[in-house]
Protein 1
Amino acid sequence: MAETGRGFPTAEYRTRLTRLQTAMHAVGQDALLLTTAADIFYVTGFLTRFWESPARPWFVIVPANGDPVAVIPAIGADLMGQSWISDIRTWDAPFPGDDGVSLLIDTLTGLVPATGSIGLPMGLETQLRMPVGDYIRVCDGLAPRRFADATVVVQRVREVKSEAEITKIRAACAVADTAFAQVPDFAGPGHALDQVFRQFQIALLAGGADWVSYTAGGAGQGGYGDVISPAGPVPLADGDVLMLDTGAVLDGYFCDFDRNFAIGHANDAVSRAHEALFAATDAAMAAMRPGMLASDVHHLLVQSLRGHGQTPGGGRLGHGLGITLTEWPSFTPHDQTELRAGMVLTLEPGVEIAPGKIMVHEENIVLRDKGVELLSTRAPRDLPILR
Amino acid sequence: MAETGRGFPTAEYRTRLTRLQTAMHAVGQDALLLTTAADIFYVTGFLTRFWESPARPWFVIVPANGDPVAVIPAIGADLMGQSWISDIRTWDAPFPGDDGVSLLIDTLTGLVPATGSIGLPMGLETQLRMPVGDYIRVCDGLAPRRFADATVVVQRVREVKSEAEITKIRAACAVADTAFAQVPDFAGPGHALDQVFRQFQIALLAGGADWVSYTAGGAGQGGYGDVISPAGPVPLADGDVLMLDTGAVLDGYFCDFDRNFAIGHANDAVSRAHEALFAATDAAMAAMRPGMLASDVHHLLVQSLRGHGQTPGGGRLGHGLGITLTEWPSFTPHDQTELRAGMVLTLEPGVEIAPGKIMVHEENIVLRDKGVELLSTRAPRDLPILR
């Protein structure tokens, strides 16, 4: 698929496999069991929107040595057969009573010694995408083999992106740049917010997104109430601040950034908030280096915002980005993850302008040895006004 | 929100709560723990695309008596506060080391007696949306309280839709009807499949979809290879069969149906396959009644297809539909779920025209006391030809 600019050459997957197996060896895990769309895409290149159906579990096993094995519903055999994976075992899912459980047990039994350890991501920001009752059955069926937490194994590998991955994320950001540039064409006083959301998604698709997995935003007088709400039919009004945020997907990779707009005019508090958000982002971009901790970035952002007389927003002020809309680490006071070159991240400072009125600003970056490289086109320094 | 045609009146949620609590009482469960977007939306009306971020778990507890309790990340407090739920407890997620675990344990401890049973969906077509390591911690922290499978509790309630829900799904189907009617405007010989997919999503949004959670399809000479692939840039050619499938979302409810088109012309095998698929759907729609089993519908479809000299496709030939793209039951030989009036379902017969060449046909219906009511506009009897 690489000829068309889609997918990756097999060498990319072989490098990922080697990195995972090296990490597995370091913690003594004899196999790695992956169940999520993101982890399976990372190892195999298997890309489909069919994950939207919760009906069936999917499994990929990375053995300590040798190539990955896919244990998947028969409906995926054709598409997985187009990937670099050759060992593909299927069952006729969904199958009441044994929905892949015995096939998974048989496969793991053949790959892992009886006293072995099977890594499974179990920690923060992970999910097990299979029925928990079946997981318990698999645990019983594999004993005395046991599952061990593989969160670190997967996260330390996936969080450092290859140049090929960075190229994909940059392309997804460019799609969103194009769509954000068109916002003045479909948003302004009197336009209903839900129609603005629709037009924004249309602009993302027309700009080349394969699909739009995430749009959110807000609008309100002098600031919005939250950043995760769907849109209602309320028309935008003079004095509103409009925020649009998107995770558009191109070839399986996300962008995730937002843009703010003042409707009609921006009052002084809004202008000051925007200035502070812009400056905090600049400050973080100037200071970030490999070896810092995620919590250091939170501190940089908060200190800059406070220095501008603002009340920093709660929650995280940025995060990892790539195969999912959000990845670890999180820019919070608590996250001690070390930043490394090749991490793709969002900087997402937020402020509370007044009770129930917030403003959030977001850019996408990649951390390099010597500092930050922007992947999104920097937001304008002055808050754009839509009339 | 009901004034604007969005959401449901509180009475709808109270009815759902009563039905769930009645089902819980029947199996002796003292609370129900819900973790997925669909289950939480069903009970609370909390609708956001923020589930796309895997960073944080979300919990809603339905006690045996009284109103639900939300235990959620602080970022969701504003939006959950707009729902009918009044007991909302938050933590500052993501929080390494205790990402809602102690708050969830405290809340469940206060709601469930020490010898009590907490229902959790664990069975076929369910997922536990929280880190499995945290689930184990919650199990330990709640002992001697124990978790028990609540798959049946949730599925028997959610699978029978209210008239208000059916109205939402019908509206989502109407959006897709509108978009499918426009396919001849942007698909035909020479059009690249990936551009057709983009234009189809744009048509769904322009037609009123809030967002498009699922599009898939296929195209190939005399049939396509699978039904879950993303699109490549290959141009459609004379003799191709094009299929487009969508799960467009309106106010949180899905449609899920597809349409087939012949590019330039349809060969005899394709025409016969389409005729058989149309007839099998008719046969099922004429015969389906409450009290039949899901496996009976599979049998009806397979018998009709065989009667037309076709090789029925493997896998399931239809399924439930509503808050997610696919819901239980599954029209397979194995699914013994009883059909009940109010179930919204897809009929999705498929045939293998030749090795590696399939064709799938899909409609959305609601089962009534006296039979089937269509929610999608019936596909044309003759396969449309795009020139």
Note: Chain B touches chain A through 84 residues (CB under 8 Å).
Protein 2
Amino acid sequence: MVNASPDLRQQIEARPILQPRRGLRDSPIAAVILTGGEVDAVAGLLHLRESQRFTLFATGRVHEALQANPIFNALNPAFVHRQSVHLDRPFDLPGGIVAELFAVPGKVALYLEREGNDLAGDVEDTVGLRLSSRTGAACYFIPGCEHLPAGIAERLRGSDLVFFDGTLWTNDEMIREGSGTKTGQRMGHMSVADPRGTIESFRDLDVRRKVFIHINNSNPILLDDSPERAIAARAGWEVAYDGMEIVL
Amino acid sequence: MVNASPDLRQQIEARPILQPRRGLRDSPIAAVILTGGEVDAVAGLLHLRESQRFTLFATGRVHEALQANPIFNALNPAFVHRQSVHLDRPFDLPGGIVAELFAVPGKVALYLEREGNDLAGDVEDTVGLRLSSRTGAACYFIPGCEHLPAGIAERLRGSDLVFFDGTLWTNDEMIREGSGTKTGQRMGHMSVADPRGTIESFRDLDVRRKVFIHINNSNPILLDDSPERAIAARAGWEVAYDGMEIVL
């Protein structure tokens, strides 16, 4: 200790250590499920490297993408267990929750695109997640979906809650406003307001609660007072926000 | 457009597009200089993938670490130029600023640690940065430094401003408080208040302004009203904060 007066020394020694729920570095995160390998899906893992125990669930393809990047070794294998899961096979999470991953139309992560490769990638590259509880309540989480095939529409029909890809308002909005060179579809996303877009595709699916997630900063539904937000709300859609809590 | 009433349609079409300084996605960042390959030094690059033009300067070793992680391909090579720089050879930045990297005692990035490897790594793994302007003013940026050899102390002597490694208050604080299992030195950091620590090592170097950076959340100097902060301030040290602006 440098130059601490006896007085300061006493203050330092007497200070109580603040205690979170269990130890100084407690985290309530018991499991992480990845729905793809794109930067916005996986970069947050780099913040979970504080020697907290959790299980990391993803398809084999997405685990391969992580394993190809040594930076994710920052997740200490003594604490973080990487578990590969198969599509369409339910698996258990802590707290009695059952999860299931299923293929949705999408694309390979941008940083894995290679000339000549099929951008659509493998069925395991972009997936949707179903979570259900002991009470039978279920929700779906689908942050990227290039179009809505009949099979997925039927899966979602009548469900309690769906979080869904709200990337763009219209397919060409980034090109029109000059903020990008790609359409939504080229990026693996259907758009909210297009004629065969999300609002239209969900109109007759009787989903009790519908929430847009994964919203690009060019999408005007992000503005509380935009006419686009009003259109989405009138069609029964909410817009997710940081700190949103859900009770099913 | 789905179900937009003529009224809403008119509002949408009449809305002016807000313009930042140059186009919708302007960024004032013209160059990024890395002082190491550790997660906290490089993860922020993943936020700079919006097709903004900048040059990424780093040693060959640090560029190798990035290249070994395909996730950084998210930095489109059409916009981001990766430039390797040699130690102790000044190079030009935009705006008439001259930069120079030099070796400091440190360690290889945690995620690159391998059993049997020398943790100290290569001289290019952990570096300090010198920035100088046409006016002759200069500052140093050294976020990780395991101890202060005489050569580096002499380099810093009498300088205008030094940003320096403030990771821990004492070498064993994470072990004592139960938030970690490693000493500061094992992580490649000298500590602020240790007998041969930072405050003592800088005491006679006549640096005009001294600012702690890279401060771990276990270090009590982060608290404005802590006795440790008072000790550091009395020794002429400031504590950096988000949004801090410097005029040299």
Note: The first helix of chain A runs from residue 6 to 14.
Protein 3
Amino acid sequence: MLKREGRTLSTYGLESGPLGYHPLREYIARKLARDAGITCSPDEILVTSGSLQGLDLVNQVLLSPGDTVIVEQMTYGGAITRLKRLGVNIVGVEVDHDGLSGAALKTALEDLKRRGIRPKYIYTIPTVQNPTATVMSTTRRAEILGLSAIYGVPVFEDECYADLVWEGTRPQAMRGMSQDERVIHIGSFSKSIAPALRIGYLVAGWPLMSRILAIKSDGGSGAIEQMILAEYCPDHFDTHVRALRKTLRRKLDVMIEALRVQFGPAAEFADPAGGIFLWVKLPDGVDTTRLTQMALQSGVAINPGAEWMTDAGAGRKRIRLCFAHPSEQVIREGVASLAGICHREFAVPARHAKEHR
Amino acid sequence: MLKREGRTLSTYGLESGPLGYHPLREYIARKLARDAGITCSPDEILVTSGSLQGLDLVNQVLLSPGDTVIVEQMTYGGAITRLKRLGVNIVGVEVDHDGLSGAALKTALEDLKRRGIRPKYIYTIPTVQNPTATVMSTTRRAEILGLSAIYGVPVFEDECYADLVWEGTRPQAMRGMSQDERVIHIGSFSKSIAPALRIGYLVAGWPLMSRILAIKSDGGSGAIEQMILAEYCPDHFDTHVRALRKTLRRKLDVMIEALRVQFGPAAEFADPAGGIFLWVKLPDGVDTTRLTQMALQSGVAINPGAEWMTDAGAGRKRIRLCFAHPSEQVIREGVASLAGICHREFAVPARHAKEHR
């Protein structure tokens, strides 16, 4: 790749313009058409430095302090942090086993409308919801899109985990279902190839894209990473992700088994439809924010529920456990260590499993 | 490199923490000690996505709308754009053959002080000033630092061209001369290795660095680029840059010769001390903003002076010509084409050189 095209590194845009390396955008367009049912040209795709930059760019263009946005009540912690930093009013809407609740969304939109407030967007993670790991049905997606149309509020769809559904296929993305420019779509290679590559993408119509391009003054996203992905993905992405899903599912099974052994019924969770995390509810009396701090001192890193919910108080009993990076052995040891700390601090689980051995 | 450390790509920070890939920071620390007289540990260095991200991060931490900053009257266009977007008052201070004028800076600081305004920083490009391509003397640097101390205004030193001084050595950076945290220093590999890599760095004391780290929520800068530079630079950077400087100097000579042939005395400029651009003054009556548009239609890209000066009106007679990327042949053709357009539109140069042949 460098022998063939290395000279283009001497320009800011790899001779591909401000949207990113053209061969990569071509691959993403083909992939989105096949996997997500999105029909778009490479020129409707912007390569970003991770989907995080996609979040930042959309926020920077659409939001001002005092604006209101709707997000899922349980959602990506980094999205909440960003919105708080921007001084935006965050309205959290209930999620159920099918993701963002249509009924609750309608109530929230109606309530805001009565108060003369039109939210700037509805942020949702439909496929492998973060942190609940559900996959939103097509019916629910249609319901959300309907509400988006009625209330004139765009949908901001974050599909960064969508390649990691265990069964290998994902429902059509809302950007694909919608026939207009009402849906902004972001995706990522962080979960499927490597987070350190910092390569994500954003699909949007020209009215928004032109405004985003005007403020993406970073001189382009990582060039070699873009070239590597464009070279690797067409022939190898599918095989790689198939194997990755198997590994992740196996690690998840190890984590679930470890939780059953160590926590017994004290740890409640639903079986994830895919992804890299498990969303666990612990009994009353456990303060997971404190648990997180204690665990970190013992070398076990977990996400406290308070950071993954719009109502931090409601997150105090929840934890988000990632199983992608640690080995099966480390998962087992980590869960055992966590149970030990939790028992010591909160007398939960009531009797520490190990004591019976 | 990938065989040895590829596994670390599966984490966000390459197991090096939020400051960036540790071996690269070690190299930068050694390089800054040797070339710029800056004594700092790798942990006072933040790897950024180009020095542009350094600009953005410092601005984001230090500036609010309505704040005042001091910049050189002729300065990097991207810095001006960014400051305007942030709603900041820009005070442009005169530059002379030695860079930012100490006398003019003192007047500006005194004037602001009388009005009760303390600027947030003094932004300067001391080594290969952009666009005038001068190198600030050590005496002048000391003068600026003295004023910074007296008026309590930090210096924001952008040394992104400092490797490209023709004579191969650069004066000590102000960050190195200063014994306290008053100087923020940024640098880049964009001009010495490749712009598309998007790797720069920022040196700052912990009070500022800790605030910057809190908002650098991008998941890290490009990993493979950082690893490549850490692998390549220790053994090859010096040899490469020595050869690069020779190539650039030769291209500059071609550009100067072409300007003399095509524009004659109508094009005024000083011989750059290094870098990749030539700052040219054209006669009264030429509007370089219009000239830029006309030239672009003929496939010749130049920077209009209005974008490189705080007083856009004063920049109307100036152009910034880059000679790094085009071949010698393209430089000759480009300057000839520019002269043709300039003659057609503004009757400058008075008689087009080619007509005499």
Note: The first helix of chain A runs from residue 2 to 5.
Protein 4
Amino acid sequence: MTCFVLAAMTLDGKISKSSSFLTTEWTSEEDFLFMRSKLDVSDAVIVGRATYDLAKEPLSVRNLLVFTQSVSGIQREHGRLAWMNPAGVDVMAELKRLGAERVCILGGRAVYEWAFEQDLVDEVYLTIEPLVFGKGISLMDHGDYLKRFSLKSVEQINDSGTVLLQYSRALT
Amino acid sequence: MTCFVLAAMTLDGKISKSSSFLTTEWTSEEDFLFMRSKLDVSDAVIVGRATYDLAKEPLSVRNLLVFTQSVSGIQREHGRLAWMNPAGVDVMAELKRLGAERVCILGGRAVYEWAFEQDLVDEVYLTIEPLVFGKGISLMDHGDYLKRFSLKSVEQINDSGTVLLQYSRALT
């Protein structure tokens, strides 16, 4: 199984201004298209509750694991959507049950933090939009790492100055 | 006068793990050489107290303005070094007095925040090291912007996967 992080951030390292701020208000169309192309090759997508609420439509056809503290274990809404409290569930077992080979970690921050804490992150696809927010939500705020990744590619993906960085787990 | 921000950050948007963590412990030699090349063409450098304490030696020959709250106005140590409380000093007047044409904003976070708040930032040179810290000090934590910059170049500067992004103030 391969798990990859998909994230868009400002040049000052923010994935959002606030939990109610829609990502598509500031990210580029090229970032959106790239996200869709990665979702299309994902067998399962893990998102947090706030990210799910903001992006229900493009996520509606995926195998979706929505992390939330408002359930204690797993609550299946239908065959392709499960609410899940990662503190009380064996998430890896659930991913295996789904036969997931490629798992997309779509955020927000708490989901990114969980994935790095579990050492699940094999690849990172990071889009940097040419904006500064100042105050906002960082990609991560917890964990104490000095974790090195291997840069696979760097590319400017539009005329507006959006940059896509691709990393993979560094060989140790 | 042109003011530019020089910053190195992790791929999760951190400029340091803590205020006592030496930048050169995790940044690349190529980032250090790039920083030196930009300092060499700077007429004045603005740093915060913690950054100055960590980098006295490479900074010792510059026109240095060290921001600190421990003085109330300006306290000149010698011709090339002045301690300064930006809340009580006309910093721009001081830069003009020095005849500074190119001013380097070297950080840390509070100095970056000050420069963006004053709308002084004409250029940003951002090095992204292929590391994840988790908890740490963000490039900025204050201010409420949706400030767009113009990407001038993007370049991988070494085999370790360090990327250098160059931005300038977007035309409005």
Note: Residues 14 and 21 of chain B are 12 Å apart (CA to CA).
